[in-house]
Amino acid sequence: MPTSLTLQKSPDAHQPPPAKSRAQGVRSYAGRTTRAAAVISVILCGVISAAGAPADLSGYRGFRFGADLAAVGRQADADVSQAKLIHGRPAVMQDLAWRPQRLGAGHQDESADDVVFSFYNGGLYRIAISYDRYKTEGMTVEDMIDAVSTMYGPAETLTPPLKAASGRYGDEDEVVARWQDPQYSFDLIRTSYGPAFRLVGVIKSLDAQAQAAVAEAKRLDELDAPQREAAKAAKEETAAKAKLEKTRLANKARFQP
After folding, report:
1. 193 class by beta-carbon count within 10 Å (0-12 exposed, 13-18 middle, 19+ buried)
2. pLDDT tens-digit profile of 63-101?
3. pTM of the complete model
4. Mind listing the pLDDT tens digit for each residue in 153-190?
5. What pLDDT does 31 receive?
6. Distance (Å, rounded) from C-alpha 163 to C-alpha 183?
7. What's the whole-number average pLDDT of the chain?
8. Where exactly are the structural domains of the chain?
9. Nearest 5°: CA angle at 224, between 221 and 226?
């Protein structure tokens, strides 16, 4: 009797997986894609944040705006008794000069010739750096901007340059670049003498107050000028009389007819 054979069909390698397996695969792939996107997003945010991090304009070489005269004097190793009183009213305004090159032989390559720290009612609000013209000889405006940008980040190039305020930097001085944020600003100044360069940083709000105080001080000085001149003349007259009297007494004692 012929034997009946039942042939079983082998699974087809190209047969699509069950619907459940396909769904799990899609979810797994989607999860991996989401995680990868999240990682990339974090990395990009970090890169953008680092690249766009604002520059620190709150000081110069460790000298911080807002510091008092004593603190700046200690840091600069300067004699604060040499601070110059600019105005005593309506606000106390003082200047302290500092010569970085005097710190020793290790500073032979120092580019700053002198630095003037200006104080408004006891707080540092302005730093003016004058560069040694021999150390900047041959350097272009672009060279100076590149150098300062290593400290303060990209500059606002002023084209054409701005004329500096009369009496502040000098009649022929030009502001050629600026670094600023809402609180502070630094101006790169090209002076006509030399030519040379200066860098002037300020606290914006206090700089405006200081300029107003200077104008008011000049107004008060003009109002008081007649009285001051009269007082000066009276003092000189009194001193002259006292000297004459001293001479009279000395001559009287020695006189021989």
Report:
1. exposed
2. 999 999 999 999 999 999 999 999 999 999 999 999 996
3. 0.69
4. 999 978 777 877 554 555 578 999 999 999 999 999 99
5. 52
6. 22
7. 81
8. 59-211
9. 120
Place of tokens 């700053």: 112
Rounded Cα distance, 247 and 257, in Å: 18
Residue 97 neighbours by CB under 8 Å, 6+ apart: 78, 82, 84, 114, 115, 116, 117
Residue 1 pLDDT more than 70? no
Which candidate, 101, 112, 174, places its Cα nearest to that of 147? 112
* Residue 176, token pair as written in the block: 């050629």
Question: Of all helices (H) and strands (E), which one includes residue 41?
Answer: helix 19-51
DSSP run (H or E) holding 238: helix 204-254
* pLDDT surpassing 50 at residue 49: no
Q: At residue 222, what is the residue type? A: E
Can you tell me which residue has the tokens 């009369």?
166
How far apart are the C-alpha atoms of 176 and 154, rounded to whole Å?
13
Angle at 240 between CA 235 and CA 245, to 5 degrees: 125
Alpha-carbon span 233 to 109, nearest angstrom:
51
**Tokens, residue 186:** 């630094």
